[in-house]
Each structure stands twice: as C-alpha cells, then as structure tokens.
C-alpha cells in the first residue's frame, strides 16, 4: 500500500503564522514586531479605557444660560404639529405575560392569523392577557391578505391573495377548544376573488367549532359579500353562529373616503338585514352587531341619522370607538374624541332601543367587555327557550295522554 504524506515547509508555516505587510501607494505601513500581539498594541496606545467615565469638570449649570425663553411666535418647533397629539387615555402598555405568549404560540403553531395583530389593535395585551377561560383573541379567517384597500385598515391587500387553507376550519376549532372559552369572535378578510366570497369557508369553520364545543358562543364579523348574492349571507347566518357582525365603520357621507370604493353604506345595512332574514328562515335566532369609528370627519347629526337607520334595520348591538392611524400611509385622524362624548353616544344609542352599546376611545368591534355582556344575554335567551320548549313538550304530552285515555275508555 502506498502512503503519501504532505509536510508544510518552515517558510510556509512562518508565512501563515506571521503578520503580513502590505503597501498601498508605495507607502509602507509600520507593523508591530512579530513578537508583539494585537492586545499589546492596544494596551500601549494612549487611549481612554472603553468604559472609563468622562470627567471634564462640567456641571448642569454650565449648560444653562439663564436667559429667558423667547416668545412662542419666535421659537423653533420640531416635529409634526399639524396632527393632534395622542391623548394619554389612548396610550396602552406593551403586551406581555404568560397568557399572551401562550396564545401567540398556539396561533403560530396552527398557522392561524388574528385581526388583533394584523390591525394593530391597542387592546391586544388586555384581551390576550387574561387567564384561562378569560383571554380572548379574534381569529381572522381566509389568510392575512384582503382584496379590499380601506384607508383606515392596516391589513395587507392584494388582488390575488393565496388560495384558502383547507385545514383552517379544523385548526381554528382546535385552537379554540384549547383555550376553554365561552365566547369566541371570528373575523375575515374580504375575498372578492372567490366565487362565494368565502361564505362556505366561514360557515364550515363555525360548524366545526360547534361540533367540538357545542356550548361555545360564536360571533362572526363578516365581509359584505358584494355582488355575491344574498344566499351567501344566508349561508353564514344559518351556520349555527350566535352573533352576526358586519361593520358600517362610519357615516354614509364619509364612507367613500374611509372604506374601499366597493364597500357601500347601504350595502352594509342590507347585509345586516338579510342576516336576520336568513337565520329566521332556517329556524335560528341571532343577534346582529355593527361598529362605528369616530374621529374621521363625521358630524353629530350624521351619527344620529346612522343610529336611526341601524335601528330600522333591526340591528341589536352597536359599538363606538376612536379611529387611530395605524401607519403614516393611512388616512389622518380628524380629531381625538373625549371620553365624555363617547359616554353621550352610549346614552343616546341605549335610548333608541339598542340591546347593548359599548362606547369608548379604545373600544373595538371585537371587545372583551362587550362579549361578556352579549354572552350573558345569549345564555339567558337559551335558558328561556329551553324552558318554553320543556313547557310545550309537557303540554303536548298531557294532551296526548288525555286523548289516549279517551280512546281506550269503553263505550257505554
């Protein structure tokens, strides 16, 4: 057997180990002798230590001139002063905690999206931060990309989003069953590229949730299914959900400037009306719900008119919240509404006969406090319906028993 052994020469080893000397523009660069290391060179250099505190003998008084400030008209103002400043009551802490982390892990593991994250909701820390059975998250169906381009919304948009995930209904039901909730909110992007607008996909998700947890209450915040036909609205409304939600977002005059041009105020009213009709035709009872943003340029008389038309459309629940600009690419905030004005609109809406009204700067269409109230209302309705059914069954049984006894009696 032949063996070949390669041995580096002494000069080659020296070339590798020793420092190299390069020349640039015929100027020699002096280097430390081979025996000196880079650390030694740094030690001998007359430099201040990296973390040594500067001691220049200066104090705060050296930076104070003692002169009076110039008048406001002569001062130089930095930053953007054209937009109203964010009030303190709209500032929230950064979300954190074990519950928040756990929900986020479940969602990422199952490939699910939430409107909480996509729409940059300020309440995400509060809603995700509750303990088991109290935390809530609004799952966004049909992906994270919408075919609409509303001027207030930070959800991604595209004319041709990715195909639907056929496993999403099952994965959504699985995630919800892990959280042990009594009330869950589903929302979705608009999918104008689909023949049915995604109605069958939403209905399938609701059905699977109900099969895994029959006692859970489901709210679905749906698209408007524009140009898809009322049958699509009926498909979702009769799928077993408890609350059918669709947002008008703003007053009719502001709609073309706030929402995508394919969305219309009258179309949204029609969606809410048809949802009630579709559920009733299927022998089911649902609540309808909508949301209005303030601070986009609406007038007081227009809000009154909007509430009146919502009641004419038999809407049960309405929420008021402050529009907050998600990024600089979105429309500007017209004004920040004070909490006292939100309280006024709550009182006005309740006086008009709405079943429930949530109104506040940080209230959103999917909001934990409102969901707890609606949950209690629906549970009471279920209990009352069960009592009526039991009473009807008992009366039917008594009538049948009496009829059987009369038939069995011998003729005299």
From TrEMBL:
<feature type="binding site">
    <location>
        <position position="146"/>
    </location>
    <ligand>
        <name>[4Fe-4S] cluster 2</name>
    </ligand>
</feature>
<dbReference type="InterPro" id="IPR031691">
    <property type="entry name" value="LIAS_N"/>
</dbReference>
<comment type="pathway">
    <text>Protein modification; protein lipoylation via endogenous pathway; protein N(6)-(lipoyl)lysine from octanoyl-[acyl-carrier-protein]: step 2/2.</text>
</comment>
<feature type="binding site">
    <location>
        <position position="153"/>
    </location>
    <ligand>
        <name>[4Fe-4S] cluster 2</name>
    </ligand>
</feature>
<dbReference type="GO" id="GO:0009249">
    <property type="term" value="P:protein lipoylation"/>
</dbReference>
<feature type="compositionally biased region" description="Low complexity">
    <location>
        <begin position="394"/>
        <end position="412"/>
    </location>
</feature>
<feature type="binding site">
    <location>
        <position position="121"/>
    </location>
    <ligand>
        <name>[4Fe-4S] cluster 1</name>
    </ligand>
</feature>
<dbReference type="InterPro" id="IPR003698">
    <property type="entry name" value="Lipoyl_synth"/>
</dbReference>
<keyword id="KW-0479">Metal-binding</keyword>
<keyword id="KW-0411">Iron-sulfur</keyword>
<dbReference type="GO" id="GO:0016992">
    <property type="term" value="F:lipoate synthase activity"/>
</dbReference>
<comment type="similarity">
    <text>Belongs to the radical SAM superfamily. Lipoyl synthase family.</text>
</comment>
<feature type="binding site">
    <location>
        <position position="116"/>
    </location>
    <ligand>
        <name>[4Fe-4S] cluster 1</name>
    </ligand>
</feature>
<protein>
    <recommendedName>
        <fullName>Lipoyl synthase, mitochondrial</fullName>
        <ecNumber>2.8.1.8</ecNumber>
    </recommendedName>
</protein>
<dbReference type="GO" id="GO:0051539">
    <property type="term" value="F:4 iron, 4 sulfur cluster binding"/>
</dbReference>
<dbReference type="Pfam" id="PF16881">
    <property type="entry name" value="LIAS_N"/>
</dbReference>
<keyword id="KW-0809">Transit peptide</keyword>
<feature type="binding site">
    <location>
        <position position="366"/>
    </location>
    <ligand>
        <name>[4Fe-4S] cluster 1</name>
    </ligand>
</feature>
<keyword id="KW-0949">S-adenosyl-L-methionine</keyword>
<keyword id="KW-0004">4Fe-4S</keyword>
<dbReference type="GO" id="GO:0005739">
    <property type="term" value="C:mitochondrion"/>
</dbReference>
<dbReference type="InterPro" id="IPR013785">
    <property type="entry name" value="Aldolase_TIM"/>
</dbReference>
<keyword id="KW-0408">Iron</keyword>
<dbReference type="InterPro" id="IPR058240">
    <property type="entry name" value="rSAM_sf"/>
</dbReference>
<feature type="binding site">
    <location>
        <position position="150"/>
    </location>
    <ligand>
        <name>[4Fe-4S] cluster 2</name>
    </ligand>
</feature>
<feature type="binding site">
    <location>
        <position position="127"/>
    </location>
    <ligand>
        <name>[4Fe-4S] cluster 1</name>
    </ligand>
</feature>
<dbReference type="Pfam" id="PF04055">
    <property type="entry name" value="Radical_SAM"/>
</dbReference>
<keyword id="KW-0496">Mitochondrion</keyword>
<dbReference type="InterPro" id="IPR006638">
    <property type="entry name" value="Elp3/MiaA/NifB-like_rSAM"/>
</dbReference>
<keyword id="KW-0808">Transferase</keyword>
<feature type="domain" description="Radical SAM core">
    <location>
        <begin position="129"/>
        <end position="355"/>
    </location>
</feature>
<feature type="region of interest" description="Disordered">
    <location>
        <begin position="389"/>
        <end position="412"/>
    </location>
</feature>
<dbReference type="InterPro" id="IPR007197">
    <property type="entry name" value="rSAM"/>
</dbReference>
<dbReference type="GO" id="GO:0046872">
    <property type="term" value="F:metal ion binding"/>
</dbReference>
